[in-house]
Design goal:
single chain, 64 residues, mainly alpha, two-stranded antiparallel ribbon, 67% helix
Length: 64
Amino acid sequence: MLEAIAAKADQENLRADFDALAEDRYARIVASGKTIPWEEMRGYLEDRLAGKVAKRPVARKLVR
């Protein structure tokens, strides 16, 4: 029973850390106004995983 409570507390702490990181990253996006579209980043990451030389995508103004 105590192990289950400890595991749940650990899970809640991990979730809080995740949420804090997400908020920080979003704040940086709002401050800079720049992002990289997921399609471009995904292609870049897939190329890197395949061992290809890939040019890093450039961040640009966020379009809503």
